[in-house]
Amino acid sequence: MLNSWAMNSAESLIRTLAAAGAEVCFANPGTTEMHLVGALDAVPGVRGVLGLFEGVCTGAADGYGRMADKPALTLLHLGPGFANGIANLHNARRAHSPIVNLIGDHATWHVDADPPLASDIDSLARPVSSWLRVTKSADDLARDGAAAFAAAARPPGAVATLVVPSDLAWGEAQGPAEPIASEAPPPLVSDRIDMLARVLRSDEPSILLLGAHALRERGLRAAGRIAAARGGCRLFCETFPARMERGAGLPAIGRLPYFPEQVIELLGSVEHLILAGVPEPVAFFGYPETPSRLVPGACRLHTLACPEEDAIGALEALADAIGASSEVASSTPAERPARPSGELTPVSLGAAITALQPEGLIVMDEAATSGLPYFLGAGGAPRHTYLSLTGGAIGQGLPCATGAAIACPERSVLAFQADGSGMYTLQALWTQARESLDVTTLICANREYRILRIELDRAGLREPGPQAQALTDLTHPVIDWVSLGRALGVPSERVESADALVRELERALAEPGPHLIEAVL
Amino acid sequence: MLNSWAMNSAESLIRTLAAAGAEVCFANPGTTEMHLVGALDAVPGVRGVLGLFEGVCTGAADGYGRMADKPALTLLHLGPGFANGIANLHNARRAHSPIVNLIGDHATWHVDADPPLASDIDSLARPVSSWLRVTKSADDLARDGAAAFAAAARPPGAVATLVVPSDLAWGEAQGPAEPIASEAPPPLVSDRIDMLARVLRSDEPSILLLGAHALRERGLRAAGRIAAARGGCRLFCETFPARMERGAGLPAIGRLPYFPEQVIELLGSVEHLILAGVPEPVAFFGYPETPSRLVPGACRLHTLACPEEDAIGALEALADAIGASSEVASSTPAERPARPSGELTPVSLGAAITALQPEGLIVMDEAATSGLPYFLGAGGAPRHTYLSLTGGAIGQGLPCATGAAIACPERSVLAFQADGSGMYTLQALWTQARESLDVTTLICANREYRILRIELDRAGLREPGPQAQALTDLTHPVIDWVSLGRALGVPSERVESADALVRELERALAEPGPHLIEAVL
User: Fold this and answer.
1) CA atoms of B82 and B78, how far apart (whole Å)
2) What is the ipTM of this complex?
């Protein structure tokens, strides 16, 4: 229909984003994105990666952003295509992951006709977008792209969404726009550091709670200096960290528990809670007669740095202020369990991973109720990076592992995955196969929504009726993950003992390319 | 945590909805829905059906609503769980399907803490909800449920969404509320009928375009009387009907084409376009130098009934007004092709279905570019019901077929499905297996997004580059649908010739329970 492809606005946009640093576009395009697809071929440097469902694309962009510390692009089709990606953008928003979503929309003059795919994209996009703009002219498109990239890349990272009407993508453009430098985070607040130095010097029992960039190596080392210098201070990470460096040689760190009564009990044991890169701890869900905010009245709450501030700089300044030695005495010793044998349980499963994990593994943990023993035991494993489900929207694990593998082609990735959640976005396995990604997916097949069995009990349904049982059951029929994996191009095996898991996991981690292991619990 | 289950507001809600006529709840619940799950056991009459992804639940509710002509319930978990169901609710909204969504939200007092799963549900739900309410008190919940059901059930049907904060579901209630009778559609407009009777008597060339309930048997028979009485009038259905009765003995009817230039050409051949239950024809997408509204200036546009009006009554009144005989002369003769042999193509595939389809088959067509030959050839097949993708949000077919089968347990269902779209919501196969539904899924495996290859060409990309090719290709790796189907509990076979398709399709249609056939094109 168009006679000349030569220079259009779509190309000016992609050229701008490539110059700003975009290297990957996780895409499931449709008709309104054809010119943007064409631009990926016209412009060198941005690699299109196809997902067979938009939740794969947005979850992969989240994983990429967590590991690359810069935005990937997504390319999504109108409101409904974007809607399929919302759940994982919700997780990305909670993770402060940098992402630039490009949504192709109808031509500006076509919307008024209310064609079948028209919908209120603004209303759908706003809840998960820290930055949202609809391009108003072909000439604006490249500049809007530069602004979107800068908004996404601004530390700690954000979801930016740019809606591109198709006529503005195919329109004439004046060429790419200059990249915009991201704003720096706000400067450290020295009053807070002085005050918290006094708190720490008191040696009153305290917890330093770390999140966001405070869980990177520099943040952890600064926190480790603080804890080593002041015996009253213990280190914890938030319950669901977006990204955390872990393993032997890093400071020992606890994890804030999940259920509110556990958090209340923990915080009841200290006089101060100091936040570094995290918001105040709140209950994941509201329960009768349980508060939302979990810091007991006797515990004083202090903010060293909120997630938008420079938590690493604040921790280092605090460590210096208390005169903490730069030599960290309290790092975790290297320690691994023996390879487990016998029954396959969350404990033996966790031990198998810890016993085998190679240096530099990226672990994406969406193992839900099967995952905690691994976390508790892996502190002394070789250095690794731990990612978790930040926003509670299940179906993040397989896509996020996919994106992490694309960000870090030289590292192995483990998708440590619950079966119920895994079924949400299993299409990610196909992208892993297509891109030959070094991801081992370990499915924890307990064949139920076990967390909901626990929650039914907590809700007073001690003996669930047949419908409550059926709605939390995955045994009828049993899902054959090995066939699912192989059908999507991923070599897959089933294991029913710890010994078999050790054997298959060792092989999968050693071989390049994707693998899947269904661990029947 | 709760000591007494005895009588809560969740139970009063489900009791109210059951009394109003709700029989099925397509659910993927989470913690905030536990009391609603418990209520499904406490109240007889509402069957919970588990979907492994929310898009399955909402698509199934759409299919159920189209076939049962009353709402199913969905039960969805907070904003992100709802978001996973939006794309198929978009299709349902375009289909005027009656659906009542129940979204469990955080406890009212918990939202202010901004827990991880909190999001702006109102903003997410509004674009796909004709009726939307957040319950304000436990006492209101049952009444809100009655209002939601009535809003959804009002002809032609609508998507109603009720947000249920968990503390209001577990709160004390005064018991169920009275069902609310749905409003009747507005009365017929006699002026319009008189005017259109004059148009028809002129015998100027005209098209009567039918949609919504005009495509039910009574509407078709009235339209058939009109066309038989006035030679100038031809009958067409809208491009993507939500539900249409078809087959031998019903009037012959054309289908409005998909591409805008085809529609413009067709309408250029007539002087009048009369709408019955449909909006004005518009282009599915905007293309350069192509109008959005497709009725040429020389063709006069008339509305007999818009989708919200009583199109059947209007057609019958119009037939009477022109003195049309009540004996329809022009019904389609029974006619089937021979069983095809040789190469498997969209044409032989269509012929195989038409040659074999049993009386009363429900055909859910999301076969995209592989589907048209079947539609064109099936007019003389035994009576059947045809459902299509109304809103363009792919991934409707497998869920919608699932819901249709639950609505009509005595009928067979054919999910006539493109492979690219089918991958969006393949989890529906598991629900078909679990519920032993008589659905035959026929995957048209052309192993590409073929419509996008066509659209790339229309956009001027005559020779797509490697990225455009890769983003529309499904061959690397090839998706093994037989393994996918079997992994999810559905007996599955692959066919590579028309002969093999005939053999497997005949078997699948004859045997009860779900089957899948991957037809390699």
Assistant:
1) 6
2) 0.97
